[in-house]
Every structure is written in structure tokens, then in C-alpha cells.
Design goal:
The chain is built from 18 helices and 13 strands. The chain has helices at about 1-15, 25-40, 65-75, 100-110, 125-140, 140-145, 155-170, 185-195, 215-225, 245-260, 275-280, 280-290, 320-340, 345-355, 355-385, 395-400, 410-420, 440-455, and strands at about 85, 150-155, 180, 200-205, 205, 210, 230-235, 260-265, 295-300, 310-315, 405, 425, 430. The protein has a 7-stranded mixed beta sheet with strand order 2-10-9-8-7-3-4. Strands 1-12 form a two-stranded parallel sheet. It starts with a helix and ends with a helix. Residues about 1-20 have low confidence and may be disordered.
Amino acid sequence: MGCGASSASHNVSSSMSKPTGTASSSAEQKVVRRIISAALIPVESENSFTNMASWFDKVPEAPVDPILGLNAAFKADPAAHKLNLGVGAYRTEDGKPWVLSSVKRAEEIILNSGKYNKEYLPIDGLPEFNVASARLMFGEQLYEANAARIVTVQSLSGTGGLKIAADFIHKFMPHATVYISDPTWANHKSIMSLAGVPWKAYRYIDRATNGLDFGGMVADLDAAPDGSVVLLHSCAHNPTGVDPSTDQWATLADLVHRKGHFVLFDNAYQGFASGDLDRDAYSVRLFLQRGFQFIVTQSFAKNFGLYAERIGACNVITGNEREANCVRSQLKLISRATFSNPPIHGALIVSIVLSNAELTALWKSELKSMADRIIRMRQLLLDALVANSTPGNWQHIVNQIGMFSFTGLSPTQVEQLTKRHSVYLTADGRISMAGLSAATCPVLAAAIKDVITNP
């Protein structure tokens, strides 16, 4: 603009300087000159905005999400034979994602029935989904006996449910600290921190045996101030795959009652852990039977394979119907300010499947087949490690449950697995059993033996 503007300015000024012979025209010329002068921006001012201090120059770059970063590294690896055991998503024996037949049939109903549209859902979600989700979590009899004091709102999968819960805790339990297992799913800490909820860790895993450090867990929760919030994995603990026994759950319930703690259950794997929906709901139903007030979040990512649909729920068990109505109103305020209202597609799929006896039976059979395949991978990996005489005791692989196995490998061994063998897993040694197959279990066993015997 610089040279062109100067030339234009000169030409206009020259033409304006020519006499016109009238006072009126002279005044007009002065007005025009003032307008032109104001409109012309000096060359040195062209970059005035870029010279200003930026609003964002103090914003640091956040660390890459460890799971998603792992996936990106795997994709960039040119190795012909590589294993991605980091991402928590089910894979078939051929290493492919699986859209369940029950889900496909529900989608056909959505598409062909003419009953459904894309209108906004209520703030608390699809009513049919909320009821079906709660019935699945608590069981028919317990749900019917406690329905008046149970509040269920649809959420953006389990993560969204935890965020709603964290915001609720921040607002209505402002002096509470949330106690989180060590280790835990990394997002638990992020969700609490971003909601402004303080958290501390309690002992969970015995590093020597890769089993549950129940004594340490009980000691830490007993030492926590009365009225603390305790985050518990209802089944298939992530990342360890180590769960309390039924007797240990009873002991935890006694401790919570004695200390006046409040429990937040993360229920991400119901039915996916053991293949039995009721068995995997044992801990949550125990606390409901004992009369506790608590929160439990649900995810349908794993057990329905609806990873991208972001469908879940946040359930709050209150003291009575009046409290339930008040809590529901507050949860709706949180949802409204967070995402306004939830998406419909995943909610329709789940509610259609769970309201249709034939589709429910099909879904349960598919769910059990996923759980059974993962259990089989555990046994095949153990057999391969024993067969090739890998040093150490690997029995914990079959003692653990759910999608993940906490191998006990050190960060250095994990790094060598990736560098030498293109095996991708999280730095804490967690592997997704769903990423293995009958063909790759011996491959992984050989790689593990190599990094242990050749450090």
C-alpha cells in the first residue's frame, strides 16, 4: 500500500490545489483534504497490530496426551511388524474395530422407522435412555426399590459423566478432597484439577506382586479426613486390571460408613470385564443395598463399542425424592453450561437395544464374546511367556481382569520394547489385551523376554 498510497495522495493533492475561483469550492477542498488525510495510513503504522503484545504469548504448550501421542507414534512407525497395545479400544482377532450387529440393527430401526429426528434432546438427555441405563447399572429390583432417590442424566460418555460429577462436587462439597487410586486412569486427575477439586492419591497396587495392596489402600482411606470423597473403579480397574474381592468390597463399605466418606464410582466396563453384567456391577449394587448415597458414572464406549458416539450417564443416589429433584436441577444447570444438551444417536442405540428382548440377547452374546476373547488372550500370553522361559512370575496376567494388564515392566523396559520391537504401550507397563491375537501373543512374549534378559 505504501508506494501506491503516496502516489495517489500526490495526485489527489495536486488536483485539489488547482484554483476553482469560488469561496464555496475552496471550503469544499479543505474538507476533502481533511478526509483524505485521515484515510491515508502511514507506512510505519501498517504493522501496528502485529507490534502489540499478544494475548497468548504467555500460554505454554500443553503436554501431549500420553495415549493419543502413543497412537500417533505407532502410525508414524515404518516397521512392517508392529503392535499397538496402548489404546483402549476393542479389536477383533484380525486387529480390526468391530461394530456390533446389535448396534447395526438398532441403527436400521432408527433409519427406517420414521419415528426419530434430529431435534434437541432435553438438557438431562433422552428419558428412555436414562431409565434403561439406570436399570442396567442397578438391576431391575434394586432400581425399582430406589427409583425415587436415583437421579440419572445423560453425559458425554464416562468422561463427561465424571466432569459433571466433579463440577457438582466442587459446588456442593467445597471442602472435600477426592482420593484417587495410585495408579489410575490419568484423566481422573485432569478432570478434578480442571474442576478446581483438590485430590490426593491412595495406595492401590503392590508393585512386587502386581496385585492389590489392600492393606495400604485401607490404611490410606482410613487416614483420610472424615467426609472425604473416594473415587473407586467399580470393576476392571484401569490401568491395573486388579479388583477387590467381594469380601474386600464389604470391608471398604464398612470403612466408608465409619468414616463418613462419599464414594464416586467410575463404571466404564460393566459386562466387558467378565462377560457378566451382574458380576461387574457387584460393587455398585452393594453400596446401594447398604443404603449409601453416592455417584456412579457409566460409559457405553466399551460394552457397546460406541467409542465415537460419546454416550454415558451420571447417576446420583440421594436420600429421598425431594433431594433427587433438587440434585437433578443442579445437574441440569451444569450440563446446560457445559454442552447445552447431549447428542441423540448413541442414546437411541442403547435405549433401543435395551428395550428390545431380541436385541438385548444379541448384545449380551456379543459382549460376552468380547470379554471371552480378552480372557483367552491373557491365557495365551501367559502360556507364551512360560514356554519361552521369560524370567519372573507372570501369573498376574491371568489374575487381572478387563481390557488392560499391568505387566510390571519398568519404563526403561517399555522404552526398549518400542525401540527394538515396535511394541507400543504406556510408560507404566499397561497393555491393552484387546490389541493382541493368537498370532501376536508369542511375538510379544519374545519381545518381553528380550528386554528383560538383554537390558
